[in-house]
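Lab notebook, bench 4. The sequencing result for the construct came back, and we need a structural model before the next group meeting so we can plan mutations. Quick request posted to the team channel:

Model the 3D structure of this chain.
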Amino acid sequence: MSLRSPRPNVFRRLAVAASALLPLVGRASQAAGAGAPGFPRSLASYGDAPGAGLWEVLRHRVEVEPFNLVATLLFVGAILHTFFAPRLRHLAHEVEMAHAERLRRRKTAPGFYGHPDEVSFVGRLLHFLGEVEIVFGVWAVLLIGSLAWAKGWGTAMGYADGRVSYVEPMFVVVIMALASTRPVMRVAEAGLRGLAGLGGGRLAAWWVVILVAGPLLGSLITEPAAMTIAAMLLARRFYEAGPSPKFAYATLGLLFVNVSVGGTLTHFAAPPVLMVSGPWHWGTIHLLSHVGWKSAVAIVVSTAAVGVAFRSEFARMEAVSSLAGADDHGTAGHPIPAWITVVQLGFLAWTVFVAHQPVLFVAGFLFYLGFAQATVQHQHPLELGPPLLVGFFLAGLVVHGGLQGWWIEPVLTRLGERPLFLGALGLTAFNDNAAITYLATLVPGFTEGLRYAVLAGAVAGGGLTVIANAPNPAGQAILGRFFPDGVKPLGLFLGALGPTLVVAVCYLFL
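Done. Here's the predicted structure in C-alpha cell form:
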C-alpha cells in the first residue's frame, strides 16, 4: 500500500474497515478463555503416577491423549522445514530457469504464434514453501486439519479460535509498521547519531551503538519495536557496506541475542518476562536488580568481543559505508514538522501502552493510517508486507506451541537450578521462549532460584533460532535480503552461539 497515491475515498474505506474489524477483534479477545473445554487437556488431568520417570510420564500422556504425539510430530516437521527452506528456494530457482529455457525453445519452434508465456507452477510453489515466514502457518493448517479429523470440527475451531491467543502476533504487526515509519526512524537515528558521534561517527561506532543501545531501548518501547528500529538502521549503516558472510551472520546472531536479553530491564517489554511478571509478582525493580543489569553487561561484553574479532573488516567497509547514505526509505531529505513527529511518537506510545488490548491498538493503527494519508508528503510508502508475514509466522507458531506443554512441563519440573537453566536455554531454540516461561508459571512450588533459572535460560537462548524469540522473524524479514540464499539456520546458530555463551556466563556467575 503506497501512501504517496492517496485515493479520495480512503477515509470511507478506513471507516468501513474499522467497523468490520473491531467487532471481530473484540469477539476474538473475549473468547480467550472459551473454546472446547476438554482440549487441550490441563496438565493436572493426566493423573501421572507419583514418582514416575520422565519417559513413563511422556508415554502415559500419549496413551491418555494420542493426539499429543501427532501435534509434536507436526511441530518437529515445521522446525525441519525451516532448516530446508534455503534449499527449497535454490531448487525453485533451478526449476524456473529450466522452465524459462523450455519457453525460449518453444518460441523458436515452427508454428509458434505468440502464445503467452506460462509461469512454472512447481517453481512458484517451491518459492512459496521456501519462505520461512509461511512455514509454521502452513504446518498449522495441517495441524488444525488433523485435529478436525481426529476430534471433530468443533474441537478444532474451539482450540484455534478460543484457546490460542493471537494478541502477540497482532501487536508485532502493528508495532513493526509504526516503528518503521519515517518520523520514528528519524528520531531514533538522531538519538543514536549523538552516541555514534562519540566515536567519530564512523561505521564501527554506528555498529556498536545500534547493537548496544538499540536492544536496551527495547526495555522501554518493547522488543519488537527495538528489533525493527535496530534492524533497519543496521541495514543502512552496516549491511549495505558489504560485510563478509561470516561477519553478516555474526552481526545477525548478536542482534538477536542482544534483543532477547535487552528487554529484561523492565517487567513489561519482553514477552517471556511478561508471562511471569504477574504470576510471580516480579516488578521492574526486581527484574533490574536480578536480571537486567547482568543483561546489560552481557550485551556490552558480547558486542565488544564480536567487534574485536572482526575489527579488520571495519576499515574495508568504511569506504563503502559512505555510499550507503542516509536516505533509505526517505529518512533524510526535507524536514518533518515537529508536530507530525510528536503525533507519530504518540501512536507508537499508545500501541506500547495498550499492547495487551488488541481492540485498542488496532483502533489506534486505523487512526494512524488516516493520519498518514493526511500527511503523505512527510511519510514514506507504508510497507505492510513484512509485518504481515511476521504476524503470520508468529500466529502459526503459537498455534503449534499451545499443544507442546504435555512434554515441556515434565522436562522442566525434573531439573535443578543449573540443569533447568541449560534445559530452558536448549528448549528455547525449538519453541518460543515466552511459551517456556508461561509453562513454568503453571508448575507449583517453583523456588525463587528455579524461577530465575528458567527465565534466564529462556531469554539467553532467544537468539539461537528464528523461532526462539518473537521479534526474531521481524529482524529476519528486514535483513534477509542481504543474505543471497536466505538466512540459513546453521549460520544464524553459529553467529549467535558466542554471544549466547557470554550471556549464559553472566547469568550463571555474576
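The chain has two domains: 64-163, 168-509.
Will bring this to the meeting.
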